[in-house]
Amino acid sequence: MRKLMLIAAVAALSACTKEEAAAPANDANIAAAEAPAATPAAFTINETTWEYIDPKTKKAVQESVDASGNYITTAGTEHFDHGTAIDKDGKACFTSAMNKDGEMCWTNPMIEPGASGETVNDKGEKLAVKRIAYVPKTM
């Protein structure tokens, strides 16, 4: 009988020890869940290339923005547009050197090369875009 009580006591103590050991792990999980999320890296339009169908001409175009924020848009071998691009208030803003339309800003679809997404300009116009690997362009 003493052996049975001894075994029961050891089992009970063993169970208590396991629960106490598990408690700090639970506290660590709670602390990790309550920790602030890491801030994603800021997106830059520089050194990116995009493909889309121009809504006005219905031509397939490719637009590249270099490291200095200059963009060139081509439709096949045709020079389609060029100007400057900057990141402003979470948007990519383009100013053409070929027209007097002024700055046009588009929401940032924040997609990786090879992925497609949708962007919307300040006028509410939507545009389906595909980001591809950066292609440097010159005039």
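(ticket continues) Second input and output from the same batch:
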Amino acid sequence: MTSYDVIRRLKKLYPFNKIGYIGTLDRNATGILPVAFNDGVKLIPFLENGEKTYKAKFLLGVTTDTLDIEGKVLSQVEAQEFDRAFLWEKLNKFRGKITQHIPVYSSKKVNRKPLYKLTRKGITVEPQLKDVEIFGIQLLDYTHPYLDVEVTCSKGTYIRALSQEFGADLGCGSTLYSLKRTKHGEFTEDMAVNIEHFKIEQDVLHYTMSLEKVLKSLRETVVETALEKFLKHGMPIPLVGNSKEWQNGEFTKLLNKKGNLIGIGMADTFSKTIKIKRLINV
């Protein structure tokens, strides 16, 4: 199931005006996929850059063209069994800011065409590079030739590429055997609902989170009723409280007197105002 397959299934159950997912999952990956609909779609830009956590299984001794187990096998060797401390040392080398080669079988677009479509047509393109960051990497288990790791990383990190690079460093090769996303920003696995639970329209409504409950890390600002019309016309409103307590460019959740989210604002400490960045229709 692709990320868009999830959207397609939900659209059959509920008449959304708009719907979108946050952070594409590879077709053979499992785990959480945050979905926003209607006015919630306006919050996606504020949610998509959150760090992600994955549990992955690497298969040592095998390389494939897609960098995962579904691809065509390019090489296969009898990898030696490694010491766990040695593997941990090798994994730890990837912690921090790294540059990855974007897999040729990926949805990254070149001249408006996804790389995987160009590759399938036999079109060779210049290797694409991407700077990402690995915030944490842990060795969970090692039962040769399978290696279980947990990776916390920045947006756009390819765990398939990480597996391939790790295997190359070991000298035996490696491919991604399985992948599960357990965290995306503030969304965690225990908040997720299995897609199979969505059978009827009421299921969509039952499992929906209110807009007020997302973006938990943002400061909340209650807007006086008389000032709401200024925001709706794109005009700034006065900064609430002591301006020294705000950071310039800081985002804030704007709530009306009823506690409903009416928009996302950004603090301008120089003019001591809050400027509207996204307006939510209430």
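Agent notes: DSSP finds seven helices and 18 strands in the chain. The mean pLDDT is 93. Closing as not reproducible unless the customer responds.
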